[in-house]
Amino acid sequence: MRSVVYPGTFDPITNGHTDLVARAAHLCDRVVVAVARDTGKETTFTIEQRVALAEHVCNGLGNVEVVAFSGLLVDFARHMQVHVIMRGLRAVSDFEYEFQLAGMNRRMAPDIETLFLTPAEQYAYISSSLVKEIARLGGDVSTFVPPAVHAALRKRFG
């Protein structure tokens, strides 16, 4: 069985994230969307809300499971019996950080590989941070996020 773990804060999950999940679901037998508890930053949505939104958005993909996790990603991957970490690269600016992260993970867990996917062109500029900022300022984010996420952002920011 080919499995992949796709980690992130998913605060909130965007159309870019869902594009990568759907594409990974076609490539792999099992996709674990790993929602990080330990983000190092204050989140807009609780871990329970982030997991619920991701589950709702991924509901139609039978080989995708959404799980909250804490601690080191490589430990979580081993616990889930997954040997591939998938990361998204939107732009060259993402590469340096992701390359460093992949190197650290490889050093801690040489048996776990990192796979990079790029989102479809129409999603390459979308980030959760920008979506939240636009929503907070009253802008329309409906083209950047799934409908359930749009509703959750409207409820959160009014």
UniProtKB/TrEMBL annotation:
**Top EC group:** transferase
Which residues are recorded as binding substrate?
A: 9, 41, 73, 87
Report whether Magnesium shows up as a keyword of the record: yes
Q: Which cofactor does it need?
A: Mg(2+)
Domain Cytidyltransferase-like: from-to ranges? 5-133
Q: What Pfam families would the database entry show? A: CTP_transf_like
Per the record, the coiled-coil ranges are: none
Q: Where in the cell is it found?
A: Cytoplasm
Catalysed conversion reaction: (R)-4'-phosphopantetheine + ATP + H(+) = 3'-dephospho-CoA + diphosphate
Q: In which pathway does it act?
A: Cofactor biosynthesis; coenzyme A biosynthesis; CoA from (R)-pantothenate: step 4/5
Official protein name in the record: Phosphopantetheine adenylyltransferase
Q: Which organism is it from?
A: Thiohalocapsa halophila
